[in-house]
Amino acid sequence: MSEPTDVPVPPSDLPATIGALRDSGWVSEPVAAELRRNVVARLRAGEPLFPEVLGYEDTVFPQMANALLAGHDIIVLGERGQAKTRMIRSLVDLLDEWMPVVAGSEINDDPYHPVSAGAMAMVAELGDDTPVAWVHRSQRYGEKLATPDTAIADLIGEVDPIKVAEGRYLSDEYTLHYGLVPRSNRGVFAVNELPDLAERIQVGLLNVLEERDVQIRGFKVRLPLDVLLVATANPEDYTNRGRLITPLKDRFGSQVRTHYPLDVETEMQIIEQEAVPFSDAATTVTVPEFMTDVVATVSHVARQSPHISQRSGVSVRLSVANYEVMVANAARRTLLSGDTDVVPRVSDLAALPAATAGKVEIESLEEGREPQILEHIVSTAVLAVFKERVTPAQLSAVVEAFEEREPVETGEDVPAGAYVDLLAQMPTLAGPVSELVGSDPTPGEVASAVELVLEGLHLSKRLNKDAASGRAQYRSRV
After folding, report:
1. How far, in Å, CA of 317 to CA of 299, rounded?
2. Distance set, CA 466 to CA 382, 455, 462 (Å)
Protein backbone atom coordinates (compact mmCIF):
# COMPACT_ATOMS: atom_id res chain seq x y z
CA MET A 1 0.00 0.00 0.00
CA SER A 2 1.39 3.40 -0.92
CA GLU A 3 2.20 5.94 1.75
CA PRO A 4 -0.11 8.97 2.09
CA THR A 5 1.15 11.82 -0.05
CA ASP A 6 0.99 14.31 2.83
CA VAL A 7 3.46 12.38 5.01
CA PRO A 8 6.91 14.00 4.80
CA VAL A 9 9.74 11.97 3.32
CA PRO A 10 12.69 11.39 5.69
CA PRO A 11 15.94 13.17 4.72
CA SER A 12 18.33 10.87 2.89
CA ASP A 13 21.20 11.54 5.31
CA LEU A 14 19.51 9.94 8.34
CA PRO A 15 21.15 6.73 9.67
CA ALA A 16 19.81 3.56 8.05
CA THR A 17 20.98 0.93 10.58
CA ILE A 18 21.27 0.64 14.35
CA GLY A 19 25.04 0.79 14.06
CA ALA A 20 24.95 4.01 12.06
CA LEU A 21 22.39 5.38 14.51
CA ARG A 22 24.68 4.67 17.44
CA ASP A 23 27.63 6.26 15.62
CA SER A 24 25.55 9.40 14.99
CA GLY A 25 25.23 9.94 18.74
CA TRP A 26 21.43 9.58 18.87
CA VAL A 27 20.23 8.93 22.41
CA SER A 28 17.01 7.15 23.31
CA GLU A 29 14.74 8.93 25.78
CA PRO A 30 11.14 8.51 27.03
CA VAL A 31 8.47 10.49 25.21
CA ALA A 32 7.78 12.52 28.37
CA ALA A 33 11.45 13.59 28.50
CA GLU A 34 11.39 14.45 24.80
CA LEU A 35 8.32 16.64 25.26
CA ARG A 36 9.86 18.26 28.34
CA ARG A 37 13.04 19.09 26.43
CA ASN A 38 11.12 20.73 23.59
CA VAL A 39 8.77 22.61 25.93
CA VAL A 40 11.81 23.98 27.79
CA ALA A 41 13.28 25.14 24.47
CA ARG A 42 10.08 26.94 23.49
CA LEU A 43 9.64 28.59 26.87
CA ARG A 44 13.26 29.72 26.85
CA ALA A 45 12.82 31.19 23.37
CA GLY A 46 9.55 32.91 24.33
CA GLU A 47 7.61 30.95 21.70
CA PRO A 48 3.96 29.88 22.25
CA LEU A 49 3.30 26.20 22.94
CA PHE A 50 0.06 26.17 20.95
CA PRO A 51 0.12 29.06 18.46
CA GLU A 52 -3.16 28.11 16.75
CA VAL A 53 -5.21 28.16 19.97
CA LEU A 54 -6.31 31.62 21.07
CA GLY A 55 -7.40 32.99 24.43
CA TYR A 56 -5.57 30.58 26.76
CA GLU A 57 -2.25 32.38 27.05
CA ASP A 58 -2.61 33.34 30.72
CA THR A 59 -4.95 30.59 31.92
CA VAL A 60 -4.78 27.16 30.27
CA PHE A 61 -1.33 27.19 28.66
CA PRO A 62 0.54 27.60 31.97
CA GLN A 63 -1.34 24.54 33.31
CA MET A 64 -0.46 22.54 30.19
CA ALA A 65 3.19 23.62 30.41
CA ASN A 66 3.33 22.54 34.04
CA ALA A 67 1.84 19.14 33.20
CA LEU A 68 4.27 18.55 30.35
CA LEU A 69 7.27 19.68 32.39
CA ALA A 70 6.18 17.28 35.12
CA GLY A 71 5.83 14.43 32.62
CA HIS A 72 2.19 13.84 33.56
CA ASP A 73 -0.64 12.14 31.74
CA ILE A 74 -3.33 14.79 31.36
CA ILE A 75 -7.11 14.97 31.45
CA VAL A 76 -8.55 18.14 29.91
CA LEU A 77 -11.95 19.21 31.24
CA GLY A 78 -14.15 21.65 29.39
CA GLU A 79 -17.49 22.21 27.69
CA ARG A 80 -17.95 21.64 23.99
CA GLY A 81 -16.24 23.97 21.58
CA GLN A 82 -13.33 24.97 23.84
CA ALA A 83 -10.52 23.78 21.52
CA LYS A 84 -9.67 20.77 23.70
CA THR A 85 -9.03 18.45 20.77
CA ARG A 86 -7.12 21.06 18.78
CA MET A 87 -4.82 21.72 21.73
CA ILE A 88 -4.20 18.01 22.27
CA ARG A 89 -3.48 17.40 18.60
CA SER A 90 -0.98 20.25 18.71
CA LEU A 91 1.11 18.26 21.20
CA VAL A 92 2.75 16.45 18.28
CA ASP A 93 4.40 19.74 17.31
CA LEU A 94 6.32 19.50 20.59
CA LEU A 95 7.89 16.18 19.55
CA ASP A 96 11.14 15.83 17.62
CA GLU A 97 10.56 15.99 13.88
CA TRP A 98 11.95 12.49 13.20
CA MET A 99 12.14 9.39 15.38
CA PRO A 100 14.02 6.18 14.55
CA VAL A 101 12.24 2.82 14.83
CA VAL A 102 13.13 -0.75 13.99
CA ALA A 103 12.17 -1.10 10.33
CA GLY A 104 8.90 -2.96 9.89
CA SER A 105 7.84 -2.50 13.52
CA GLU A 106 4.09 -2.17 14.09
CA ILE A 107 4.49 -0.38 17.43
CA ASN A 108 7.40 2.00 16.80
CA ASP A 109 10.00 -0.18 18.57
CA ASP A 110 12.96 1.73 19.95
CA PRO A 111 16.05 0.46 18.06
CA TYR A 112 17.99 0.28 21.34
CA HIS A 113 15.15 -1.21 23.42
CA PRO A 114 12.69 -3.17 21.24
CA VAL A 115 9.62 -4.60 23.01
CA SER A 116 7.67 -6.54 20.36
CA ALA A 117 8.57 -10.12 19.54
CA GLY A 118 9.30 -9.36 15.88
CA ALA A 119 11.60 -6.44 16.59
CA MET A 120 13.47 -8.23 19.36
CA ALA A 121 14.08 -11.23 17.09
CA MET A 122 15.34 -9.01 14.27
CA VAL A 123 17.73 -7.09 16.54
CA ALA A 124 18.98 -10.33 18.08
CA GLU A 125 19.70 -11.75 14.63
CA LEU A 126 21.12 -8.71 12.82
CA GLY A 127 22.59 -6.64 15.65
CA ASP A 128 24.04 -3.35 14.42
CA ASP A 129 22.98 -4.21 10.87
CA THR A 130 19.30 -4.07 11.84
CA PRO A 131 17.59 -1.63 9.44
CA VAL A 132 16.14 1.56 10.90
CA ALA A 133 13.14 3.49 9.60
CA TRP A 134 12.22 7.07 10.49
CA VAL A 135 8.78 8.17 11.66
CA HIS A 136 7.64 11.79 11.31
CA ARG A 137 6.14 13.40 14.39
CA SER A 138 2.78 13.76 12.60
CA GLN A 139 2.55 9.94 12.64
CA ARG A 140 3.17 9.69 16.38
CA TYR A 141 -0.35 10.67 17.44
CA GLY A 142 -3.27 8.30 17.99
CA GLU A 143 -6.83 9.27 18.87
CA LYS A 144 -10.05 7.48 19.74
CA LEU A 145 -13.46 9.00 20.27
CA ALA A 146 -14.91 7.09 23.20
CA THR A 147 -18.22 5.49 22.28
CA PRO A 148 -20.26 2.85 24.13
CA ASP A 149 -19.34 0.25 21.52
CA THR A 150 -15.57 0.77 21.88
CA ALA A 151 -13.91 -2.56 22.68
CA ILE A 152 -10.68 -3.54 24.39
CA ALA A 153 -9.56 -4.88 21.02
CA ASP A 154 -9.76 -1.34 19.57
CA LEU A 155 -7.54 0.13 22.27
CA ILE A 156 -5.23 -2.67 23.34
CA GLY A 157 -5.38 -5.45 20.76
CA GLU A 158 -6.81 -8.84 19.88
CA VAL A 159 -5.93 -12.22 18.44
CA ASP A 160 -5.92 -11.99 14.65
CA PRO A 161 -7.99 -14.94 13.31
CA ILE A 162 -6.36 -14.64 9.90
CA LYS A 163 -2.93 -15.25 11.40
CA VAL A 164 -4.33 -18.23 13.28
CA ALA A 165 -5.83 -19.58 10.06
CA GLU A 166 -2.40 -19.29 8.46
CA GLY A 167 -1.17 -21.96 10.89
CA ARG A 168 0.16 -20.06 13.89
CA TYR A 169 -0.59 -21.29 17.41
CA LEU A 170 -2.85 -19.26 19.67
CA SER A 171 0.00 -19.14 22.19
CA ASP A 172 2.22 -17.45 19.61
CA GLU A 173 2.66 -13.69 20.14
CA TYR A 174 2.80 -13.28 16.38
CA THR A 175 -0.96 -13.94 16.24
CA LEU A 176 -1.66 -10.62 18.00
CA HIS A 177 -3.13 -7.63 16.22
CA TYR A 178 -2.12 -4.52 18.16
CA GLY A 179 -4.69 -1.88 19.05
CA LEU A 180 -4.43 1.90 18.95
CA VAL A 181 -2.53 2.29 22.23
CA PRO A 182 0.40 -0.02 21.34
CA ARG A 183 0.51 1.50 17.85
CA SER A 184 0.94 4.90 19.52
CA ASN A 185 4.04 3.66 21.39
CA ARG A 186 6.64 6.43 21.82
CA GLY A 187 4.02 9.02 20.99
CA VAL A 188 0.81 10.67 22.19
CA PHE A 189 -2.51 8.86 22.49
CA ALA A 190 -5.75 10.74 23.14
CA VAL A 191 -9.18 9.54 24.23
CA ASN A 192 -11.92 12.07 23.52
CA GLU A 193 -14.97 12.12 25.83
CA LEU A 194 -13.43 9.56 28.19
CA PRO A 195 -16.49 9.20 30.49
CA ASP A 196 -18.45 7.76 27.56
CA LEU A 197 -16.11 4.78 27.56
CA ALA A 198 -17.72 1.74 29.22
CA GLU A 199 -16.35 1.16 32.71
CA ARG A 200 -15.02 -2.31 31.86
CA ILE A 201 -13.05 -0.71 28.99
CA GLN A 202 -11.74 2.04 31.26
CA VAL A 203 -10.26 -0.71 33.44
CA GLY A 204 -8.17 -1.76 30.45
CA LEU A 205 -6.36 1.60 30.55
CA LEU A 206 -5.24 1.28 34.15
CA ASN A 207 -2.06 -0.62 33.37
CA VAL A 208 -1.22 1.74 30.51
CA LEU A 209 -1.28 4.73 32.85
CA GLU A 210 0.50 3.27 35.86
CA GLU A 211 2.49 0.15 35.01
CA ARG A 212 3.08 1.26 31.42
CA ASP A 213 2.24 -2.07 29.88
CA VAL A 214 -0.65 -3.90 28.22
CA GLN A 215 -1.91 -7.45 28.47
CA ILE A 216 -3.80 -9.05 25.61
CA ARG A 217 -6.20 -11.98 25.99
CA GLY A 218 -4.25 -13.60 28.81
CA PHE A 219 -1.08 -13.98 26.76
CA LYS A 220 2.12 -14.09 28.71
CA VAL A 221 3.23 -11.00 26.88
CA ARG A 222 4.20 -7.71 28.47
CA LEU A 223 4.69 -4.64 26.34
CA PRO A 224 6.37 -1.86 28.35
CA LEU A 225 4.87 0.93 26.30
CA ASP A 226 6.04 4.53 26.34
CA VAL A 227 2.91 6.63 25.73
CA LEU A 228 1.74 10.03 26.88
CA LEU A 229 -1.99 9.52 27.50
CA VAL A 230 -4.27 12.54 27.20
CA ALA A 231 -8.04 12.50 27.64
CA THR A 232 -10.88 14.99 27.35
CA ALA A 233 -14.14 15.10 29.26
CA ASN A 234 -17.09 17.37 29.82
CA PRO A 235 -17.21 18.56 33.46
CA GLU A 236 -20.88 17.60 33.66
CA ASP A 237 -20.07 13.97 32.81
CA TYR A 238 -16.87 13.96 34.83
CA THR A 239 -18.17 15.33 38.09
CA ASN A 240 -21.90 14.62 38.25
CA ARG A 241 -22.68 11.46 36.34
CA GLY A 242 -19.70 9.61 37.81
CA ARG A 243 -18.91 7.72 34.63
CA LEU A 244 -15.16 7.94 35.07
CA ILE A 245 -13.97 5.19 37.39
CA THR A 246 -12.03 6.42 40.43
CA PRO A 247 -8.86 4.33 39.87
CA LEU A 248 -8.53 5.72 36.34
CA LYS A 249 -9.15 9.29 37.50
CA ASP A 250 -6.45 8.83 40.14
CA ARG A 251 -3.85 7.81 37.55
CA PHE A 252 -3.93 11.06 35.58
CA GLY A 253 -1.16 13.30 36.84
CA SER A 254 -2.71 16.65 35.92
CA GLN A 255 -6.21 17.97 35.34
CA VAL A 256 -6.50 21.05 33.13
CA ARG A 257 -9.66 23.15 32.86
CA THR A 258 -10.47 25.01 29.67
CA HIS A 259 -12.94 27.85 29.22
CA TYR A 260 -14.72 29.93 26.61
CA PRO A 261 -13.10 33.18 25.43
CA LEU A 262 -13.06 35.62 28.31
CA ASP A 263 -13.61 38.69 26.12
CA VAL A 264 -15.32 39.54 22.85
CA GLU A 265 -12.06 40.59 21.19
CA THR A 266 -10.62 37.08 21.54
CA GLU A 267 -13.85 35.57 20.20
CA MET A 268 -13.57 37.87 17.17
CA GLN A 269 -10.01 36.70 16.53
CA ILE A 270 -11.16 33.07 16.69
CA ILE A 271 -13.98 33.81 14.23
CA GLU A 272 -11.60 35.39 11.75
CA GLN A 273 -9.21 32.46 12.14
CA GLU A 274 -11.76 29.67 11.84
CA ALA A 275 -14.56 30.89 9.56
CA VAL A 276 -14.57 29.53 6.02
CA PRO A 277 -14.50 32.57 3.74
CA PHE A 278 -17.17 33.02 1.09
CA SER A 279 -15.43 32.72 -2.24
CA ASP A 280 -16.72 33.88 -5.60
CA ALA A 281 -14.60 35.36 -8.35
CA ALA A 282 -17.25 37.89 -9.37
CA THR A 283 -17.85 39.36 -5.91
CA THR A 284 -15.86 40.97 -3.13
CA VAL A 285 -16.67 40.34 0.53
CA THR A 286 -16.10 43.00 3.17
CA VAL A 287 -17.25 42.38 6.73
CA PRO A 288 -17.21 45.53 8.86
CA GLU A 289 -15.53 44.96 12.20
CA PHE A 290 -18.67 45.93 14.10
CA MET A 291 -20.63 43.12 12.40
CA THR A 292 -18.04 40.56 13.53
CA ASP A 293 -18.33 42.18 16.96
CA VAL A 294 -22.11 41.63 16.94
CA VAL A 295 -21.70 37.93 16.08
CA ALA A 296 -19.12 37.42 18.85
CA THR A 297 -21.27 39.32 21.33
CA VAL A 298 -24.26 37.09 20.52
CA SER A 299 -22.32 34.12 21.91
CA HIS A 300 -21.26 36.04 25.02
CA VAL A 301 -24.86 37.11 25.67
CA ALA A 302 -26.04 33.52 25.19
CA ARG A 303 -23.48 32.30 27.74
CA GLN A 304 -25.03 34.62 30.32
CA SER A 305 -28.67 34.06 29.40
CA PRO A 306 -30.84 32.28 31.99
CA HIS A 307 -32.96 30.97 29.10
CA ILE A 308 -30.03 28.99 27.62
CA SER A 309 -28.84 25.77 29.23
CA GLN A 310 -25.37 26.59 30.51
CA ARG A 311 -24.77 22.94 31.39
CA SER A 312 -24.53 22.19 27.68
CA GLY A 313 -22.43 25.28 27.03
CA VAL A 314 -22.41 27.69 24.12
CA SER A 315 -19.66 26.57 21.79
CA VAL A 316 -17.28 28.88 19.95
CA ARG A 317 -18.50 26.96 16.91
CA LEU A 318 -21.72 28.95 17.35
CA SER A 319 -19.84 32.17 16.66
CA VAL A 320 -18.15 30.71 13.60
CA ALA A 321 -21.40 29.28 12.20
CA ASN A 322 -23.29 32.53 12.82
CA TYR A 323 -20.59 34.53 11.08
CA GLU A 324 -20.62 32.20 8.07
CA VAL A 325 -24.42 32.24 7.73
CA MET A 326 -24.49 36.05 8.10
CA VAL A 327 -22.01 36.40 5.24
CA ALA A 328 -23.95 33.81 3.22
CA ASN A 329 -27.19 35.75 3.64
CA ALA A 330 -25.43 38.94 2.57
CA ALA A 331 -24.03 37.14 -0.47
CA ARG A 332 -27.45 35.79 -1.44
CA ARG A 333 -28.97 39.25 -1.08
CA THR A 334 -26.18 40.80 -3.15
CA LEU A 335 -26.40 38.20 -5.91
CA LEU A 336 -30.16 38.69 -6.23
CA SER A 337 -29.70 42.44 -6.53
CA GLY A 338 -27.03 42.09 -9.23
CA ASP A 339 -24.44 43.90 -7.13
CA THR A 340 -20.87 42.66 -6.59
CA ASP A 341 -20.00 44.13 -3.17
CA VAL A 342 -21.00 41.76 -0.35
CA VAL A 343 -21.24 43.65 2.97
CA PRO A 344 -23.31 42.17 5.82
CA ARG A 345 -25.87 44.42 7.51
CA VAL A 346 -28.07 44.23 10.58
CA SER A 347 -30.91 42.93 8.39
CA ASP A 348 -28.73 39.91 7.57
CA LEU A 349 -28.77 38.94 11.25
CA ALA A 350 -32.26 37.53 10.65
CA ALA A 351 -30.46 34.46 9.27
CA LEU A 352 -28.68 33.72 12.57
CA PRO A 353 -31.42 31.62 14.24
CA ALA A 354 -30.95 28.94 11.57
CA ALA A 355 -27.34 28.47 12.74
CA THR A 356 -28.01 29.16 16.42
CA ALA A 357 -30.97 26.87 17.08
CA GLY A 358 -28.99 23.66 16.66
CA LYS A 359 -26.07 24.76 18.82
CA VAL A 360 -27.80 25.89 21.99
CA GLU A 361 -30.29 24.19 24.26
CA ILE A 362 -33.22 26.19 25.55
CA GLU A 363 -34.12 25.58 29.19
CA SER A 364 -37.10 23.22 29.48
CA LEU A 365 -39.28 25.90 31.10
CA GLU A 366 -38.86 28.03 27.98
CA GLU A 367 -39.98 25.44 25.42
CA GLY A 368 -41.99 27.00 22.61
CA ARG A 369 -40.32 30.40 23.01
CA GLU A 370 -37.14 29.63 21.08
CA PRO A 371 -37.67 32.28 18.35
CA GLN A 372 -38.35 35.05 20.86
CA ILE A 373 -35.38 34.06 23.03
CA LEU A 374 -32.96 33.96 20.10
CA GLU A 375 -34.28 37.27 18.76
CA HIS A 376 -33.79 38.87 22.17
CA ILE A 377 -30.20 37.59 22.37
CA VAL A 378 -29.37 39.05 18.94
CA SER A 379 -31.02 42.38 19.81
CA THR A 380 -29.09 42.57 23.09
CA ALA A 381 -25.83 42.00 21.19
CA VAL A 382 -26.65 44.68 18.59
CA LEU A 383 -27.45 47.21 21.31
CA ALA A 384 -24.24 46.42 23.20
CA VAL A 385 -22.09 46.93 20.09
CA PHE A 386 -23.97 50.09 19.15
CA LYS A 387 -23.43 51.64 22.58
CA GLU A 388 -19.74 50.71 22.55
CA ARG A 389 -18.91 51.93 19.06
CA VAL A 390 -21.08 55.03 18.51
CA THR A 391 -20.55 58.22 20.52
CA PRO A 392 -23.85 59.23 22.19
CA ALA A 393 -23.24 62.94 21.60
CA GLN A 394 -23.66 62.49 17.85
CA LEU A 395 -27.04 60.79 18.08
CA SER A 396 -29.30 63.57 19.32
CA ALA A 397 -29.07 65.37 15.99
CA VAL A 398 -29.97 62.15 14.14
CA VAL A 399 -33.07 61.66 16.31
CA GLU A 400 -34.10 65.29 15.74
CA ALA A 401 -33.71 64.88 11.98
CA PHE A 402 -36.28 62.08 12.04
CA GLU A 403 -38.86 64.49 13.48
CA GLU A 404 -38.83 66.44 10.22
CA ARG A 405 -38.99 63.63 7.65
CA GLU A 406 -40.86 60.55 6.49
CA PRO A 407 -39.95 57.11 7.93
CA VAL A 408 -36.77 55.44 6.67
CA GLU A 409 -37.18 51.98 5.15
CA THR A 410 -34.51 49.25 5.43
CA GLY A 411 -34.36 45.60 4.51
CA GLU A 412 -32.45 43.06 2.50
CA ASP A 413 -34.09 44.17 -0.76
CA VAL A 414 -33.16 47.83 -0.21
CA PRO A 415 -30.10 48.57 -2.41
CA ALA A 416 -26.94 50.06 -0.96
CA GLY A 417 -27.40 53.16 -3.11
CA ALA A 418 -30.58 54.03 -1.18
CA TYR A 419 -28.55 54.31 2.04
CA VAL A 420 -26.01 56.55 0.29
CA ASP A 421 -28.89 58.80 -0.79
CA LEU A 422 -30.22 58.81 2.78
CA LEU A 423 -26.80 59.90 4.03
CA ALA A 424 -26.92 62.83 1.63
CA GLN A 425 -30.42 63.75 2.80
CA MET A 426 -29.52 63.42 6.50
CA PRO A 427 -26.02 64.86 7.02
CA THR A 428 -26.37 64.21 10.76
CA LEU A 429 -25.82 60.51 10.00
CA ALA A 430 -22.33 61.22 8.65
CA GLY A 431 -20.69 61.36 12.08
CA PRO A 432 -21.92 57.99 13.39
CA VAL A 433 -21.31 56.35 10.00
CA SER A 434 -17.72 57.57 9.82
CA GLU A 435 -17.16 56.31 13.37
CA LEU A 436 -18.16 52.86 12.22
CA VAL A 437 -16.65 52.56 8.72
CA GLY A 438 -14.20 55.44 8.30
CA SER A 439 -14.19 58.51 6.13
CA ASP A 440 -14.23 56.84 2.71
CA PRO A 441 -16.67 53.93 2.89
CA THR A 442 -18.11 51.95 0.00
CA PRO A 443 -21.90 52.04 -0.56
CA GLY A 444 -22.19 48.61 1.06
CA GLU A 445 -20.33 49.79 4.15
CA VAL A 446 -22.55 52.88 4.35
CA ALA A 447 -25.64 50.64 4.23
CA SER A 448 -24.24 48.43 6.98
CA ALA A 449 -23.36 51.36 9.24
CA VAL A 450 -26.69 53.13 8.71
CA GLU A 451 -28.63 49.98 9.62
CA LEU A 452 -26.64 49.58 12.86
CA VAL A 453 -27.27 53.22 13.82
CA LEU A 454 -31.00 53.01 13.11
CA GLU A 455 -31.43 49.67 14.90
CA GLY A 456 -29.34 50.88 17.82
CA LEU A 457 -31.51 54.00 18.18
CA HIS A 458 -34.63 51.84 18.09
CA LEU A 459 -33.29 49.43 20.73
CA SER A 460 -32.33 52.49 22.82
CA LYS A 461 -35.99 53.54 22.58
CA ARG A 462 -35.17 56.70 20.65
CA LEU A 463 -36.82 55.66 17.36
CA ASN A 464 -39.90 53.61 16.64
CA LYS A 465 -39.73 50.62 14.34
CA ASP A 466 -42.35 48.75 12.33
CA ALA A 467 -41.16 45.45 10.87
CA ALA A 468 -42.90 43.07 8.47
CA SER A 469 -41.94 40.71 5.62
CA GLY A 470 -38.21 41.32 5.81
CA ARG A 471 -38.55 45.12 5.78
CA ALA A 472 -38.42 47.66 8.58
CA GLN A 473 -39.47 51.30 8.91
CA TYR A 474 -37.81 53.62 11.40
CA ARG A 475 -39.63 56.77 12.41
CA SER A 476 -39.65 59.43 15.08
CA ARG A 477 -41.24 58.65 18.44
CA VAL A 478 -42.80 62.14 18.52
Report:
1. 10
2. 17, 11, 14
Q: For residue 444, how many other CB atoms are within 10 A of its CB? A: 27
Q: State how far the alpha carbon of 215 is from the alpha carbons of 178, 376, 410, 441, in Å.
A: 11, 57, 69, 68
Q: What is the pTM of this model?
A: 0.86
| Beta strands 141-145; 187-192: pairing state | parallel
pLDDT tens, 376-403?
999 999 999 999 999 999 899 999 999 8
Which pairing describes strands 408-411 and 471-476: parallel, antiparallel, or unpaired?
antiparallel
In three-state form (DSSP H/G/I as H, E/B as E, the rest C), the secondary structure along 319-365 is HHHHHHHHHHHHHHHHHHHCCCEECCCHHHHHHHHHHHCCCCCECHH
Length in residues, the chain: 478
Tally DSSP H helices, then E strands, for the chain.
21, 14
How far is it, in rounded angstroms, from Cα 109 to Cα 113? 7
Domains in the chain (CATH in brackets) are 18-257 (3.40.50.300), 264-476 (no CATH)
